[in-house]
Amino acid sequence: SAVISQKPSRDICQRGTSLTIQCQVDSQVTMMFWYRQQPGQSLTLIATANQGSEATYESGFVIDKFPISRPNLTFSTLTVSNMSPEDSSIYLCSVEDPVAKNIQYFGAGTRLSVL
Amino acid sequence: QKEVEQDPGPLSVPEGAIVSLNCTYSNSAFQYFMWYRQYSRKGPELLMYTYSSGNKEDGRFTAQVDKSSKYISLFIRDSQPSDSATYLCALLMDSSYKLIFGSGTRLLVRP
Fold first, then answer.
1. Minimal CA separation from B4 to chain A, in Å
2. Hey, which of A61, A65, A66, B24 has its CA 20 to 30 A from B16?
3. Nearest to B97 among A96, A105, A111 (CB)
4. What are phi and psi of B83, to 5 degrees?
5. Please, which residues 31-60 of chain B have a Cβ atom closer than 8 Å to chain A?
6. Is the alpha carbon torsion for A101, A30, B95, A60 positive or negative?
7. One digit per residue, pLDDT tens: chain A, 115 residues?
8. Which residues of A touch B88 (CB under 8 A)?
9. B51-69 burial string, b = 16+ CB within 10 Å, else e?
10. Which of B108, B92, B94 has its CA nearest to residue B46?
């Protein structure tokens, strides 16, 4: 399985500011994904990020709020823009297994609190 | 109606017990079934992956899928305190990358 590093592991931010979360993988992967896990709830897919193309966003998530970059096959960033307390969540990146493409591996997540 | 239903627990069992964790789903288009374990303040860790009806065993863990009933289970034998975590079922349709997660069941194994 891939080793996935996320930074920062946690942060406390003021409303109206933005935070960029980094996701680094130890091997080249085609598909990377960003999920949100709100307090006491399960994981919800925010967007799919392919290298060299625009991210694909799920219903309820928009690029202006969650811009994503995917500059190469081992790295992606998710920005949470103009934050409000409702954005307080755990944000997780995942990658598909390069062989068993139906399998996804997750990073440890970024725990975000917005005051 | 949620696509995937999972009892949130918490489920508290004594050490050594057999644990049964379950999910039901409504869409027969789901073809791939996974179980993840998530420790507190950690990311989900893949435990089991299967795509056919029947049982799949890996050590103390057995994943069971019944596509006709739209019901999946994870059994843990000889449960240990280290098994205390939240267990998430995750389902995937063919030709899709979007994992649909259950809400997770919190398990506590008492020494």
1. 11
2. B24
3. A96
4. -80, -5
5. 32, 34, 36, 41-46, 49, 51
6. positive
7. 789 999 999 999 999 999 999 999 999 998 999 999 998 788 999 999 988 888 999 999 999 999 999 999 999 999 999 999 999 999 999 999 888 878 999 999 999 999 9
8. 42-43
9. eeeeeeeeeebbbbbebee
10. B92
Is the separation of the CB atoms in A63 and A86 below 8 Å?
no
Question: Residue A80 in contact with residue A62, Cβ under 8 Å?
Answer: no
A43 to chain B: closest CA residue: B101
3-class DSSP state for residue B81? helix
C-alpha dihedral (B3, B8, B14, B15), degrees to nearest 10: 60
Q: How many angstroms away from the CA of B106 is the closest CA of chain A?
A: 11
Q: How many residues does chain A have?
A: 115
User: Could you tell me how many CB contacts below 8 A there are between chain A and chain B?
Assistant: 48
Q: State the best of A104, A105, A110 to mutate against chain B, taking most chain B CBs within 10 Å.
A: A104
Provide the strand spans (E) within A60-99: 68-72, 75-80, 89-96
